[in-house]
Amino acid sequence: MDFFESAYTGTPPWDIGRPQKEFVELVRAGEITGSVLDIGCGTGEHALFFAEEGHDVWGIDSVPLAIQKAQEKAAARGLHVNFLVMNALALNTLNRTFDTATDSGLFHTLSDEDRPVFVNTLAAALVPGGKYFMLCFSDLEPAGYGPRRITTREIQDSFRDGWSINYIRPATFESHTRVEGPRAWLSSITKG
User: Fold this and answer.
1) Is 12 helix (H, G, I), strand (E, B) or coil?
2) CATH number of the domain that residue 103 is part of
3) Which range of residues forms the domain containing residue 26?
4) How many CB atoms lie within 10 A of CB 116?
5) What is the 3-state secondary structure (H, E, C) of 29-87?
6) Residue 13 has pLDDT above 70, yes or no
7) Pick from 123, 81, 131: which is nearest to 101 by CA?
8) How far apart are CA 162 and CA 89, in angstroms?
9) Residues of the chain with pLDDT > 90: what percent?
10) How many structural domains compose the chain?
11) CA torsion, points 168, 126, 101, 135, in degrees to nearest 10?
């Protein structure tokens, strides 16, 4: 059993039982538009929030137990979201495109080799002019517990061809293990 599969047998630190405030603020600001693909959706809090706000939403995660929990939440809340077990490196196999893609904590788990694959498959899943919103661990977070830290340069390098970076701004990852959540970057990136 890999780390993520075992994490979902309990409650992972990132599963706070509600959407991250950064994504709530994006919705309130009108930045999340149209159809939404939530990549690495976990137990579905972001996808379900977007659905509550009237969006057509799909959520994908590679961990079957996470998707099962997300489907159970959707049923309990009377919300419709298409939840699928899927590898984020195969978004092109969805055979559909979205206006918006969101990622809360996936990008920083990708290896250097997987990043360009992810960026290419993400491009296949977004309409021209579609936006990708990413919340990832920041290199400003001290070393220690948690995933790999990401620099702004790594984000810029990953999305330099065929993308426009609207902003990369300091943010916080809310967690149930720390009062002051880890430092993060929130990025808004438009497909060219």
Assistant:
1) coil
2) 3.40.50.150
3) 3-191
4) 13
5) CCCCCCCEEEECCCCCHHHHHHHHCCCCEEEEECCHHHHHHHHHHHHHHCCCCEEEECC
6) no
7) 131
8) 18
9) 80
10) 1
11) -30
pLDDT higher at 27 or 143: 27
Residue 161 tokens, joined: 């061809």
**C-alpha dist (Å) from residue 174 to 65, 139, 179, 182:** 22, 16, 8, 7
Q: Answer whether 0.85 is exceeded by the pTM.
A: yes
pLDDT in tens, 133-148: 999 999 988 887 777 8
Walk across the sheet containing 36-39 and list its strands. Answer: 82-85, 57-61, 36-39, 98-104, 126-137, 183-191, 163-172
Judge whether 90 and 114 are in contact, CB under 8 Å: no
Other CB atoms closer than 10 Å to residue 44's CB: what's the count? 28
Residue with tokens 């495109």: 97
Closest CA to 58 of 25, 5, 98: 98
Q: Phi then psi for 188, rounded to 5 degrees?
A: -120, 120
Looking at residue 121, its pLDDT comes to 97
Q: Minimal CA–CA distance to 37: which of 86, 77, 73?
A: 86
Q: Which residues contact 189 (CB under 8 A, 6 or more apart)?
A: 131, 132, 133, 134, 155, 159, 163, 164, 165, 166
Return the pLDDT at 31.
97
Question: What secondary structure does DSSP assign to 126-179, as a single string?
Answer: EEEEEEEEEEEEBTTSPSSSSS--B-HHHHHHHT-SSEEEEEEEEEE---SS-S
